[in-house]
Amino acid sequence: MKINLYRPIAVSLFAVVGAVSFAAPDEDILQAFHKKYDNLSSMSCNFTSSGFKGMMYAMRGGKYRIELGERSIISDGQVVFNVQYSTKTVIINEYDVNTDDVSVEKILFTLLNVYRAEVIKNTSKIVLIRLLPPNMDVTIAGVDKVELTCTKTLDLRSIDVYNNSSRTTWSVQNLKLNKKINSAQFTFNPPAGWQTVDLR
Predict the structure, then answer these.
(1) Does residue 8 lie within any of the structural domains?
(2) Does a structural domain hold residue 53?
(3) Residue 8 backbone dihedrals phi, psi, to 5 degrees
(4) Predicted confidence (pLDDT) per residue in 152-161, tens digit
(5) How confident is the model at residue 17 (pLDDT cuts 50, 70, 90)?
(6) Fewest CB atoms less than 10 Å from the CB: which of 22, 42, 83, 113?
(7) Is 191 exposed, middle or buried (0-12, 13-18, 19+ CB in 10 A)?
(8) What domain range includes position 120?
(9) Could you tell me the CATH number of the domain that includes residue 118?
(10) For residue 119, is it within any domain?
């Protein structure tokens, strides 16, 4: 009986090559994802969350503007203005870099650069990427994990944030990255006749 000594080697090589070929697409996706989203300088988008619709502009350094119809939340990186147009009131607080509030810009500017990304679903229509803290004992704003639903070209469509037993979802539209934003977007001067409550 002839024994084909090359067959086991060929089978082993096929298994190795096969494993690499299946793993490579996820690695390619993560490389493209990090290239697109790491080290962002600015972002803007429309969003929907918990029945609220709004628009956000943000720049690295704690600068953001969130428009919610009759309300705006504006930060210049040092001061936060909570603006109520219907009552002509603005409440002023100091910006807190360590706040446990989680929003789209905090995920894109902070969590993406700290948490570990992995592809958990890759279909013909979507890519689902999960962000996990490098150490489960050390989380940012108490976030246990984030799941990002993207198109095949890695355009972000929705964000699911898991914090303890709660889950918050943002639907994202018209996301623009690294576009120039006028610095005037990140400050607010109350018009005459407005009530100002300064809590600093």
Answers:
(1) no
(2) yes
(3) -60, -35
(4) 999 999 999 9
(5) very low
(6) 22
(7) exposed
(8) 36-198
(9) 2.50.20.10
(10) yes
